[in-house]
Amino acid sequence: MNLELLVWLIPLPPLVAFFVILLFARGSKLASDLVAVVAILATWAIAIIVLISALTTPQLGQNPIEASLLWLPLGPTAETGLRMGVLIDPLGAVMLFFVPLTATMIFIYSTGYMASGHYWTEVKASEGDPLPEGAVVDEAGRALVRFDATAWKARFMAFISLFAGGMLLLSVADNLLLLFIGWEIMGFCSYALIGFWHNRVYPNEPKRITPMLAGIKAFMTTRVADVVMLLGIAWLYSFTGTLSFRAILYNEATLHALEAAAFPNIAWLGGLSVAGAIGLLLFAGTVGKSAQFPLHTWLPDAMEGPTPVSAMIHAATMVSAGVYLIIRMFPLLTVGWHGHGFTLTMTVIAAVGAFTALFAATIALAQRDIKKVLAYSTISQLGFMVAAIGIGAYIAAAFHLMTHAIFKALLFLGSGSVIHAVEHGEEHAHHHHGHHFPLDFDAQDMFNMGGLWKRIPVTAWTFLIGGLALSGFPLITAGFWSKDEILLDAYLHSPVVFVVLATAAFLTAFYTMRQIGLTFAGSPRTHAAEEATQTDWRMNLPLGVLAVFALVAGYIGVHQDFPVLGRLLGSNPFKNFVGQTLLEKPETPPFVFVPLLVSIGVALGGLFVGWLIYVRKPLAAGQEDPLKTFLGPLYTLFERKYYIDELYDLIFVRPSRWFAERVAYQLIDRGIIDGFLHFVARSAEWTAFRNKDFDTHVINAGADELVDGIGKTGESFRYVQSGRIQQYLAVAVAGLLMLAAVFVWTLFLR
Fold this sequence. Notes:
The protein is mainly α. The protein has helices at residues 3-9, 12-24, 29-55, 90-113, 153-172, 176-194, 211-240, 245-249, 252-260, 274-289, 298-301, 307-316, 318-328, 330-333, 344-364, 370-390, 394-433, 457-471, 478-493, 495-520, 527-530, 537-552, 565-568, 573-578, 593-615, 626-631, 633-639, 644-716, 725-749; strands at 65-73, 81-88, 118-122, 136-137, 143-148. The chain folds into three domains: 3-115 and 150-639, no CATH class; 650-719; 720-750. The chain has a three-stranded antiparallel sheet, with no helix packed on it. Strands 1-2 form a two-stranded antiparallel ribbon. It is elongated, with a radius of gyration of 38 Å. It starts with a helix and ends with a helix.
C-alpha cells in the first residue's frame, strides 16, 4: 500500500466535490447532499487507514510518512526551489483523527439542518406599488417577506466541501506555503458561508449586523492578521531558504542560527532574536484566525451563518487552524527557552492567551443568544491553548485542541438542533394553534426557550454531555483531562497564568450550566418552546457519535501518575506519541494534587452555582436574568462585550469610511484621477475641435477656393469655345495679323 499516495488523496474528495456540485449538481439538493457526504466519507476512510498506519509505525517522529515534489524551481539546479509535499508525523496524525471525524459528522448533520427553514428578507418596491403576498412592514418601515432558507442548499454543500478540503490540505501540508494556501481557502469559505444567507434581515432591528456584513467583517479582520503572518513566512524563507517543517523545526543547526541572529538591539524588546520576531509575526495569524484579543470580534458575529458553518468554524476547521499553526511551529516559537525563564515571544503568547481566556469568559456570562455563548466559549478555550503554548505546555495544548474540537462540535450541532426545534415550534404554534408571535421573535434567544428537556431528549442529553466536557466535569469527560493538563503546566511554570485560567475555568462551568438551565430546565417560557420538536435522524446521529467521543477521548491523555487510572490506561499514550514530533521529547511534568483539586473545584463549583441559580429555580416567562441583579453595571458591560465593537467602530471603521469616502473617493478618485482624466479628455476634445476648424477653414476652404477659381476660369473660356468655324477662322486670322505686325515692327520699324 502506497501510504504517501493515500496522504495526497486525503484532501482531494471534498475539493473535487466542490467542483462537481457547482458544475453538475447545483440544481439538485439530493444530489449535492450525496456528493458531499460520499466525498467526506471517502476522506474519513482514507484518513483512518493512514492513521492506523501512523499509529503502528515505530518512531513516527523520526520516520514520518512524507512525500514532496518540486513546485517552483529556483536556483542554479533543477532540484532547488519551493517544494510542495505532505507530512504525517504524530501531530499530523492527531489532526487526521479529529478533523475528518468532526467534518463528517457536520456534513451528515447539514443534510438535515439545511432541509427546512425560513428567514426574513427585505423586498424593494416602488412607492405606491402593492406589497407582495405575505409581506409585512416592520417598525423601520421595511417591507419583509419570508424566504426559503433551503433555496441555495446545493451551493452550501459545495462551499462546506471546499471548507473541509482547505482544512485537510492544511493538516497534511509539509510546509508553510502549502499550509498558507489551505489557510486562505478557509478564509474565503468563511466569508462565503458566514454571509451565506446574504439577503437576511432582522425585523425591527435595522442596526443589527446581518450575515452579509458579518461575512465581510470576518474576512477583513482575518486578512489583517494574514498579511502580518505572510510577512513572517517571507522572512523565514529569506533566512532559511526553505519553508519545510522538517527542514526548519527538526534541524538543530537551523534553529540555533535563528536564535543567534540578532534582531535590532532595542532595549525594550529584550534582545529579541530573528526567531522570536518571526514567531510573533506568525502568531499574528493565530490571533486573527483563532479570534484572540484584540482580533476576536469577528467570531461572535460569525454566528450569523447557518449553524453547521458555526460548527465547522469552531471545531473542524477555521479556529483550530490558528492553534494548530503555533503548535506546529512550537520549536521556532520557543527558541532560546530552556525550561525556565520565558522568552519575550512566549511571554506575549501566554499573556494574550490567558487574558483572552478570562476576557471572553466574562462576556459569555451575559449573552442571551445560545450560539453566541458558545462563540465566546470558543474564544476562551482557544485562549487556554494559546496560553499553554506560551508557557511551553506543548502536549497539553495539542491534547486540548483535539478534545475541544470534539465537544465544541457537539455543542454547536446541539444548539442548531435546539434552534431548529424552536423554529418548528413557532410555526406549529402559529399555524395549528393560532398563537401569534412578535415579528422579531428570536428562536436563538435562550430566554424564549425553557422546558426543552422533554421535547427534544436526544439533543438535551448530548448537549449536557458536551456542556460537562466543556466545563471539565471530573473523571468522566474528555474536557477534564485536557484542561487539567494545561492547569498543571500553568501551576508549575506560571502562577499568574494558573490563577487567570482557573478563574476562567470556573466561569466556563458557570455559564455552561446557565446555558443548560435556560434552554432545557423548567417549563417552556414561550409557545414556540411548548411545541418544539426535532426528530431528524440525520441531526441526532452525529450528536450521539460526538457525545461518545466527548466522554472517552480524554482517556488517552491521563497523566501517568494519576491515581489508579494513570497506570490502568497505559501511562499517557497521547503524550508519548505526540511528544515524538519534537526534536527532544518533552519531559512529563510531575503529578501535583493542588492543580488537580483546583481543576475539580472550579468545575464542580461553577456547575453548582449555575445549578442553584438556573436549574433549581428555573426562570419563569418574562423573568429577568438573576445575574443582572447580582452584577449590576458589570452585567451591562459584559452584555455589551466591553463596548469593544463600538470602540473599533469609532477608531477604525468610521475613520476608514471617512477616508474612503472623502479622501480615496472624492479627493483621489474623483478629484485627482478623474480630474486628470477629464483634463486629458477635454484637452483631446479641444485639440480635435481645433483640428476640425483648421481642416474646415484652411484645408477644405483653400481647396474649395481653388476649385471655384478653376470653375470660374472655365466659365470665362466658355465664350471662346462657341463651336462656330467662321468665328474660329476670324480669330486665327486676327492672331496671324497681330503676329505679322509684331514681326514687321520688330524687324523694320524699331
